[in-house]
Maintenance of telomere capping protein 6
Amino acid sequence: MWLWIFLLPVCLAEANWPRLSTRSSQAYRAERDIALDIPIDQQTPFGISANRLIFDVEGYTADSLATLSNVLYVGINAIMLDMYWNEYTHRWQLCPAPIPEDATANSSETVKVSWQDKTYRCQPSFADSDVYATLRDYIKSSNINSEANVVQLILNLRSIRNDTVVVRTNTTGNRTVATRPAPTSLQTGMVVYQPKYMEVGNTSLSGPISTLNSYLYSPRDLNTSVQINVTSNYDSEFPTMQDFMFNMYKRTLISAINTDFRNTSRTYNLSSADRDSIFFYEDSGFTLNDTSEFVLESCRKRLTDVFDSNYYSQRVHTTKFRTLIDSNEAPLSRDDAHNALQCGYMPVLNASWYPADNKSNISDDYTGRILNRYIPYSYWSWGSNEPNASFVNKTRIALDQDDLRTRDEDDDDDNDVDNPFGDDPDWQETAESQVAEKCVAMKQGGWAVENCYNKYRLACKNTRNPFEWQLSEEIASYFSTNQQVCPKNFKFGIPHSSTEQLALRNFLNASQVIYPVWIDLNDITISGCFVDGGPYAECPYKRAVTTSNLIRSIAPSAVVAVVILLLIFYERFFLSTPIHSNRRRHWKRVINQYYKKNDYEGVPS
Ligand SMILES: *[C@@H]1O[C@H](CO)[C@@H](O)[C@H](O)[C@H]1NC(C)=O
Ligand SMILES: *[C@@H]1O[C@H](CO)[C@@H](O)[C@H](O)[C@H]1NC(C)=O
Ligand SMILES: *[C@@H]1O[C@H](CO)[C@@H](O)[C@H](O)[C@H]1NC(C)=O
Ligand SMILES: *[C@@H]1O[C@H](CO)[C@@H](O)[C@H](O)[C@H]1NC(C)=O
Ligand SMILES: *[C@@H]1O[C@H](CO)[C@@H](O)[C@H](O)[C@H]1NC(C)=O
Ligand SMILES: *[C@@H]1O[C@H](CO)[C@@H](O)[C@H](O)[C@H]1NC(C)=O
Ligand SMILES: *[C@@H]1O[C@H](CO)[C@@H](O)[C@H](O)[C@H]1NC(C)=O
Ligand SMILES: *[C@@H]1O[C@H](CO)[C@@H](O)[C@H](O)[C@H]1NC(C)=O
Ligand SMILES: *[C@@H]1O[C@H](CO)[C@@H](O)[C@H](O)[C@H]1NC(C)=O
Ligand SMILES: *[C@@H]1O[C@H](CO)[C@@H](O)[C@H](O)[C@H]1NC(C)=O
Ligand SMILES: *[C@@H]1O[C@H](CO)[C@@H](O)[C@H](O)[C@H]1NC(C)=O
Ligand SMILES: *[C@@H]1O[C@H](CO)[C@@H](O)[C@H](O)[C@H]1NC(C)=O
């Protein structure tokens, strides 16, 4: 049911817009739930520049906000927004060009404006408060437990400098040209022109932010709140995602980059109100990188380096909100973006053009086409295009290997490199007669759904240090992972953050492990609802429906309730899932466990 609530606004959007597919909404929620105990400064969302992917394409107009809204609904949790301080008008505006006073008398009309060799379509009335209102409306409509998320808004502060000479040409239909520096000689018919510009936007940077009211987490909140539930290994000043959303009822925070913001005599002076509501990257010690080659290269090196868990605990203490912004010189490919995520950096797509669907033109469905391509790669946790529960018969795949490769050219990442040599009895045993594609394993490219009956080693996490990993001595099927198979002080586990994931991958590579290994995540009880806590962990989102509510509303007596519950379990476990054997044992265990948990009397046997 929650799935449909989540999908609905997206389905109503334009035809070419990417749907938040069932698969990505499952992937998205699983990643969020696993990371709830991690401080927000160590979360790794996927980000886009609203300017490059939306407004440059569709115009700086209120109509483009529908696209921004869709971007939020498909699960993009970080938006970068360029804000321009107009030195002529002393106001903040979104349009990258100053709008001449005589451009239009109607501030809702979209006009073409040129500035320094670029032309933009701008609506004078369009302002940052409209963007905040769109964000607020999205937050309001997604403010329920199963959908809530943390959205980061990154303001990229820039200026429209009064150092530009405007030249008006009489001959070419009164076109104005702005050049910097001034041309050495003016052609005939050209005059230097002192235009007057429309006073659009607000004089204060933080004033319009009040639109977000109580959803915003500000530096002042950080200063005044006492952290009660600190995740000790992270020891962050920032709250965990759980506390942020479900105890403080916050949903968003605004940070600002001001590397492009120059200090001139007409510059904007940040007020104390600005510093109270916006985190500045430099002052707050956030990590900003914009040379993707260096970052990606150091990530590759890290993976094959000698494993040292101290590096990772150091890293979460010394860096926060690690951000990697790309540019036209080096746009991030899907794999680059995915590698950055798995390395603990939030990638922000900021290049003017990305290849999409063989179409080279930038038309109105551009944003949708780009996101269609990138969303399957937008998780720090999951491998590309996961969770993918379609069964692949390993015996068959060995025969068809070549066939598969030629067919799937577009898919640059192929998970089957994980097991190029077939089964090695020390590392794995592939089940061929029994299939339950409901358990999650760690592969080279990230988390991936595998057959629970396959036997792999288990990833065991130190109970006191989440960056310290070991493997079980023996291979085991996922169903036996609840037995004691991990070394002392270690427990079958799963990475809760991108840095824990990097540590695990570094450990696996450094110890020359043959992938995959089991991690603690499955959707055995309810298909599509991924939970940790072993094979019998319950899905938190269906609980309300399947237990107390149902008993109260349908069943008059406990006996009837038991019968109904049995029917529900029968349907859930055996009619809708392809678990074929171990039927009796599995069934009994689940039921018994269920009753133990819920304190019912008279367990049927
Ligand atoms: C822009 O700069 C020029 C000289 O540099 C100055 O004469 C003019 O008044 C400035 N305009 C504004 C709006 O500040
Ligand atoms: C202003 O422009 C908008 C959009 O083009 C139009 O809908 C509106 O009627 C115009 N208003 C006036 C007063 O012309
Ligand atoms: C541009 O030129 C046309 C005639 O060529 C004139 O009607 C119009 O008012 C001019 N616009 C501006 C902004 O000067
Ligand atoms: C522009 O053209 C008009 C008529 O062609 C002329 O009267 C005017 O002087 C010209 N302006 C400039 C700045 O060249
Ligand atoms: C700036 O924003 C604040 C808060 O929304 C508002 O009260 C104020 O009127 C705005 N000022 C201008 C000049 O638009
Ligand atoms: C946080 O508190 C410290 C000292 O209590 C103060 O110096 C600083 O200005 C405060 N920062 C904010 C953003 O309120
Ligand atoms: C701390 O965590 C517990 C359980 O996880 C929760 O009930 C409680 O509300 C949290 N307290 C705060 C202040 O976040
Ligand atoms: C900008 O310039 C002013 C004086 O012109 C100075 O007080 C201020 O510290 C400068 N700011 C930065 C960030 O350099
Ligand atoms: C910013 O502060 C400097 C120095 O105090 C001042 O000269 C300048 O006019 C101020 N700028 C604005 C836009 O208020
Ligand atoms: C990323 O930027 C930080 C400064 O913000 C710098 O110290 C670090 O070396 C950079 N990382 C890489 C890999 O370039
Ligand atoms: C983003 O893209 C713009 C336009 O290509 C470029 O000017 C800018 O430097 C890039 N990076 C950031 C951090 O804005
Ligand atoms: C997988 O393929 C092998 C060889 O064709 C076959 O024996 C086996 O039954 C298949 N397994 C399943 C579950 O289809």
Observations:
- The CA atoms of residues 7 and 21 lie 8 Å apart.
